[in-house]
Structures are given as C-alpha cells and as structure tokens.
TrEMBL record, chain A:
GO CC, one annotated term: plasma membrane
Family according to the record: Belongs to the binding-protein-dependent transport system permease family.
PROSITE patterns: ABC_TM1
SUPFAM superfamilies from the UniProt entry: MetI-like
GO biological process entries: transmembrane transport
Main localization category: membrane
Keywords: Membrane, Transmembrane, Transmembrane helix, Transport
Name of the molecule in the record: Peptide/nickel transport system permease protein
Subcellular location: Cell membrane; Membrane
Pfam families linked to this entry: BPD_transp_1
Automatic annotation (TrEMBL), chain B:
Pfam family membership, one: oligo_HPY
Keyword terms: ATP-binding, Cell membrane, Membrane, Nucleotide-binding, Transport
GO annotation terms (biological process): peptide transport
Protein name: Oligopeptide/dipeptide ABC transporter ATP-binding protein
Family to which this protein belongs: Belongs to the ABC transporter superfamily.
One CC-aspect GO term: plasma membrane
Single Gene Ontology MF annotation: ATP hydrolysis activity
Main localisation: membrane
Keyword Cell membrane (UniProt): yes
Length: 342, 337
C-alpha cells in the first residue's frame, strides 16, 4: 500500500516535472524570439532609439541607460551581452518599458490588462461549460426527440459562427436597435472606482455583452463534445451491465455523466489557459482593455517591448494551463492516477 | 441466511426476437420454446451468431435497440411473464430476481469506481438493509473464486486482469441471491484450469442456493461437466434439447453431431476431430423457408427445403429435424418442450 502510493506519487511528480521542463523551454523560446524581433527587426528600433536620444542632447551614457530601461537590454555590446542582459532582466520580472505609453513599465500595463481579461473570459468559459455540458447530456439522452435534435443543431450552428459575428450581432441588437446595454468600454467614467454600487453596476453592465459573446461562442463546442462523449459512453458495456444489474436510474446516470465529462475537464483547463490571448476579437469589438487589445495595440504602434512581454505572458498562461490540465486529469481519473494505461 | 429451497422454473414460449437491419426486421431468435426445470443448470451451445446472447437478454427483457421481442413470453415462477414487465418493476427484477453475467463481463464495470463502491450502489439500488452483510457475502464469493476479496473490493477495474474482472461479474450476479441466474459465456477470458474451477464453483453455489441456471458457452466440452440439460441453438432455433449426457452421448440432430465431432476432447480421437463445414449463418443469409441448417447438413432431404422441422419429442429429448433419428428411444421426461 505505502510503496504503491509512493510509486504513484513518484510517477505523478515525474510527469509534472516533464511538463514544467517542456514549459520552461517554450517560455525560453518565446523570450528568445521576442529578443530577436526587437533586436533584428529592420531599422533596429533599439539603435534608432539610442540615436534619437543622442540627438535630443543626451550624453551617450544617459542615452544608453535610457534605452536599456525601455527595452531591457543595452543598445550596444555584443549580441551575447545583449541577450544575457535581456534574459537577466526577465528573471527579475522586468519586461522593460512601454513606448506607446511612455515611461510606464510593461509589467504594470500587462497586469491591469490581465485583470480586464481574466474575469469576463473566465466567467464566459465557465458559463458556457456548464450550459454546454448540461445541454449536451440532454441532447444525447433525448437524441431521438425533437428538443434533443434542436439542441444539437443549435450547437452545430453556434460552433460554426465566428466569434466576431456573434459579438457584432449582439452589439447591433442590444446596444443599437434596442439600446439597453453599453456598446463598449469597461466601465462608465463618472463612477469612482471602488466598492460602490454605481461603479460595480456599471462594471457588470459593461461585462454582460462580452461575457455573453464568449459564452455563445464556446457553448457550441461544449454541447457537441459532451453529446458525443455521452453517446460513446452510452454504448459502453458497463452502462448496459449496470442496467442489467437493476441499478437505479439516478446511479446509472451518474456513471454515465462522470465518465462522459472527464475528458472535458482537460479541455476546460486548456481553454482557460488560452483565454489570456484568445479574446482578441471580443476585446476589439467591445473596446475592452484586456490582454488581447493590448497585444493588438502594441503591434500597431510597434511597441516591441510591450509586444514581447504580452506574448510571454500569454505563453506562460498556456504552459501553466497545460500543467494544471494534466494534474486535474490525474486527480479525477483513477486510471491515470495510478499510472495504469488499461 | 435462511434459504427456502424451491427453485423457480422458467418457461420460454414462442419467443421471437427481431433486429431492425437495413433489409427490414430479421429474427435472431425464432419461435423458441425452452423450459428450464427448477433447480437445474441448462447449458446453451451453438456457434457464434446463433442467437444465444439474444435469448439470454430476453430473459431479463433487456434486448437492446435496434432489437425487440416481437412475440412470445418468458414465464418465471414467482415473477410472471418477464416480457410484460416495465419500468421500476422490471428494474427491481433485474439483478435481484434474475442475476446476469454479461457476455463481455471484463468490461462490465464502471472504470471510475472501486468494485466495493459499485457493490454498495447495487445494494442501495435494491434496498438491501444490511450492507455490511452484502460486503461480507461478496468477499466470500470472491474468495471462493480464488481471489483476495478485500483487495478486489478496494480495486478499480484497470487494476484487475480480464479473468479477475470476469469473476467480479459473476460475483455481482450471485451476491443478491437471485434465484434465476443467466451466465453468457462467463469464462471466456479465463485459462482452461480457472475455467473449470469457476464452472465448478458455479455448480456448487447453484446447488447450495437451489437456483435455476442458464449457462451459455461455445465450449461444448466445458458445459458437459456442469450442466444437467443441454440446448443446442442454430440460426435462432433450439434444434435439440435434452439431458446433457444423452444429447452429447447420442446426438440426434445433425448439427449437434457436427458440433461434437469438431471437438477432439469429446470425439475421443484427435485424428477424427473435424471442423463443421460451411459458415454459421447471419441474419441476412438465413433461408426464409425450410430447415435453417439444410445447406450445411450432410444428409438433407427434399422436404428440408420446403418445410421447417417442428421440434418434437424423441429419444428422451426434443429435436427439430425431418430425418428419422438413429436412436428411437421413447421420451422419459416430458419437460423438454
Ligand atoms: N444490435 C444488433 N443489430 C443487428 N443484428 C444483431 C444485433 N445484435 C445481434 N445481432 C444478430 O443477431 C444474431 C444473433 O446474435 P447473438 O444473439 O449475439 O448470437 P450469439 O450470442 O449466439 O453469438 C446474429 O446474427 C447477430 O448478427
Ligand atoms: Mg453471444
């Protein structure tokens, strides 16, 4: 017993270590790529910045330091020195400073954008997951009935519609034709931020359309995935065996639902990881100042430090989600938990 | 536990089960009459596709779509006609009154739950008052089948071998003390020695509890050791049914003879063992009129092409064949209807 448990824990630790190692390699690759972009882009933005500082009358020393602060590495020196300098500042969570919002640190820009992204998209993901899974079970069990067909059809249709179409439609309906909700922005400016009813109410009103858009956009995928999982498990021998043993309907249903939902948890964890970057369209449509919008703006204003930093954070989000998904699966699926494959 | 030692009898009458196929509804079981005498073990043999599993599922009124029971009845003493049971009444019959070992018993367990948890689900589903006693009975049954009961109850399916899972499936069929037990190929995943042991244990439990048991197998040799009676199925019909010693010792139906000849252990001589010629029929290739076996029969008559032979009593058993039997002995028992 104890040895088996130790073995299982060991196997799990090895798997997690493997994920962490792969994740670190991925993060390192992205960091290196963004270094190369900043450094090697035509017209070398770093050197250009350095020279414009000189022209503004700074001493070479001052110009060098100013550029280093902006990009996280020195404008001159060997490639290797620049690279190690850049990586060194990354290790201190220093992503440099933004150009388009002069003087502000990239990390603080990303931090405030992340909070605008995470909450609405998290809410949208969880809502669409709960809704899609419930409806998926129903659509599978009643797949020969009218309502079951209708549900599955709604899933296929919504699944095929691009997210920006859903977003634009919702804005057209609820902000223009029948203006009951704000068409964009995160919050009305007249309220002072804080825990007061006005501010929170405005916050929620602005979040409704983005959250609903996100929910509708991913609901189709969940309902289809859950329906097909339930249909597969329904055909499994152990469900018929449970019925032949006269188990109560409720118990058979639990057997069915637990086995069908299991694979979806992994996808859920992964899609929560993707939310860091996956909301670009929604944030553009609703002018919602999240990470997606930040990335788009950094690209259009050639704010390379911000762009690299945002990419890096999105990558880290995905890597962490992968690890969480794997851990989650190990915790809920006993077959994986014990390292078995049968 | 006090057991009242009267086993129920089972009477299957005119049972027809059809499957909906692209070419319409085709019968997998056709007008079968079969009586299981109280307290006996009846073996059912026949090549794969002959309708054995379909017949077994009918005894629980559990034929799965696209199949359905289109005619006939399955009368079980104390339960009435199972084919008419519905809903909650049917659910309570399954497992509690009629135990069933699934053909693919290796896959009959919920992969996410321990065997013990599934046992408790079973007990609660059937309002078993003393769950502790249920667990004790399960452990004992598992122990008899050569396993460490406590450990098995703590395990999940993937921690058990195919043979262990199959024995767990048998335990589930016996643990609620159902008086009628149906076992569909209960020993296929087991090696020869374990197979013999398990069949012997089934026999023991059967005798102790006064059960009425149906064992399906395509291993004629294995069933010879445990069964009292033997029913031979071909193309959805029971072509021969009688006491096992007589059916195997002096087969009347040409199909039974062919089956026995194909088994070295029974034909007595390795050199003489001979596979049955031709292929077993499928739903689509069954002839619509006449004897279903005629195309593979070594001595078919003209009559066999036009008229389907009706099961009739002869030589101490029922046989469905136009040929005059080689063993003209009068019927001794009359329950082989
Ligand atoms: N779900 C099904 N759909 C169509 N035909 C089926 C189905 N299940 C069984 N059959 C057919 O019914 C016949 C009897 O099958 P079965 O009862 O499983 O035979 P056995 O158990 O003797 O191998 C076979 O010809 C098989 O192909
Ligand atoms: Mg079968």
């Amino acid at each position: 017993m104890t040895r088996a448990t130790a073995n299982r824990a060991g196997a799990l630790a090895r798997r997690v270590a493997g994920h962490v190692a792969r994740g670190l390699v991925m993060i390192w690759l992205v960091a290196t790529i963004s270094f190369v972009i900043i450094r090697e882009i035509p017209g070398d933005p770093v050197l250009a910045m350095y020279e414009s500082m000189l022209q503004k009358g700074m001493s070479p020393d001052q110009a060098e330091r100013a550029t280093a602060v902006l990009y996280g590495f020195l404008p001159k020196g060997s490639l290797w020195e620049q690279y190690t300098g850049y990586m060194g500042s990354l290790l201190h969570f220093d992503l440099g400073r933004s150009l388009s919002t002069p003087g502000v640190e990239v990390t603080s820009l990303i931090g405030s954008a992340a909070s605008w992204t995470v909450l609405p998209v998290l809410a949208g993901t969880l809502l669409s997951f709960l809704l899609g899974v419930t409806m998926g079970v129903y659509a599978a069990v009643r797949r020969s009935g009218r309502l079951g067909d209708l549900l599955a059809l709604s899933g296929s249709l919504l699944h095929g519609v691009p997210v920006y179409v859903i977003g634009l439609l919702l804005t057209a309906i609820f902000a223009t034709l029948w203006p009951i909700l704000p068409s964009g922005g995160p919050v009305d400016v007249e309220f002072t931020p804080g825990l007061n009813a006005g501010y929170l109410g405005s916050l929620v009103r602005h979040a409704v359309l983005p959250v609903v858009t996100y929910t509708l956009a991913s609901y189709g995928g969940w309902i289809l995935a859950m329906k097909s999982n339930v249909v597969t498990v329904l055909g499994d021998d152990f469900i018929l065996a449970a019925e032949l043993r006269g188990l109560r309907r409720g118990i058979v249903f639990r057997y069915l639902a637990r086995n069908a939902i299991l694979p979806l948890f992994t996808i859920l964890a992964l899609s929560i990881g993707m939310l860091f970057g996956g909301s670009i369209f929604i944030e553009e449509i609703f002018n919602y100042p999240g990470l997606g919008l930040l990335l788009v703006n950094s690209i259009s204003s050639r704010d390379y430090a911000l762009m690299g930093g945002t990419f890096l954070v999105i990558t880290i989000g995905i890597v962490v989600a992968n690890i969480v998904a794997d851990l989650l699966y190990s915790v809920i699926d006993p077959r994986v938990r014990s390292g078995g494959t049968a | 536990m006090e057991r009242h030692l009267t086993a129920p009898g089972v009477r299957i009458r005119g049972l027809t089960v059809v499957y909906n196929t692209p070419s319409g509804e085709l019968p997998a079981v056709s007008g079968v009459d079969l009586t299981l005498a109280p307290g006996t073990i009846t073996g059912v043999v026949g090549e794969s596709g002959s309708g054995k599993s379909t017949l077994a599922l009918s005894m629980l009124n559990a034929v799965q779509p696209p199949g359905r029971i289109s005619a006939g009845s399955v009368e079980i003493d104390g339960l009435g006609d199972v084919v008419r049971l519905r809903g909650e009444e049917l659910r309570r019959t399954r497992g509690r009154k009629v135990g069933y070992v699934f053909q693919a018993a290796q896959n009959s367990l919920n992969p996410l739950k321990t065997i013990g948890a599934q046992l408790l689900d079973l007990g609660r589903s059937h309002d078993v008052g003393d769950l502790r006693a249920l667990v004790r009975d399960a452990r004992e049954l598992l122990g008899r089948m050569g396993m460490d009961g406590a450990r098995v109850l703590d395990s999940r399916q993937h921690e058990l071998s195919g043979g262990m899972r199959q024995r767990v499936g048998i335990m589930f069929a016996l643990v609620l003390d159902a008086r009628v037990v149906v076992l569909d190929e209960p020993t296929t995943a087991l090696d020869m020695i374990t197979q013999a042991t398990i069949l012997r244990i089934i026999r023991e439990v059967h005798d102790e509890r006064a059960l009425t048991t149906l064992v399906i197998t395509h291993d004629v040799g294995a069933v010879a050791e445990v069964a009292d009676d033997l029913a031979v199925m071909y193309g959805g019909r029971v072509v021969e049914h009688g006491p096992v010693a007589e059916v195997l010792g002096a087969p009347e139906h040409p199909y039974t003879r062919g089956l026995i000849r194909a088994i070295p252990r029974l034909s007595g001589d390795l050199g003489l063992a001979r596979a049955l010629p031709g292929r077993p029929p499928t739903l689509g290739t069954l002839p619509a009129a006449g004897c279903v076996f005629r195309e593979r029969c070594e001595s078919s008559l003209d009559l066999c092409r036009t008229a389907e032979p009706v099961p009739a009593a002869r030589a101490g058993r029922t046989v469905a064949c136009h040929l005059p039997g080689p063993h003209a002995v009068p019927v001794k028992r009359k329950e082989y209807a």
